[in-house]
Amino acid sequence: MSSSTTPVGTALRVASATVLLLLLASCSPAQGRAPRPIVAWSVAGDVLQLVVDTCHGDPRATVEETDDEVTVTIVSTRHDPGDACQDTVEVTLEAPLGSRTLVDGTSGHEPEPVEG
Q1: With bands split at pLDDT 50, 70 and 90, how would you rate the model's confidence at 19?
Q2: Contact 81, 56 (CB under 8 A)
């Protein structure tokens, strides 16, 4: 009888499959570190305030500025406490945003500004 058909072999296969599923679940993009969309933003001169739907996710922004647009990509870890918690990222631009378009590097689209 081969070891894969013994009770020990079967238990090892089940344990291996369980470990693999747990590892895959822990790498889920919903909870892992990944680019996150900007859900709102505001600007005061050369400082952008950006909001992402992560909670204490240690968000980090990369910025690319041209004469026509400013592209910001935020990478953060998603924790799911519900809608009660969001992260804010402050970015200081090389020059005021002015008439340049803000582009979310995650979606390639212009995010919604905060009304007010």
Answers
A1: very low
A2: no
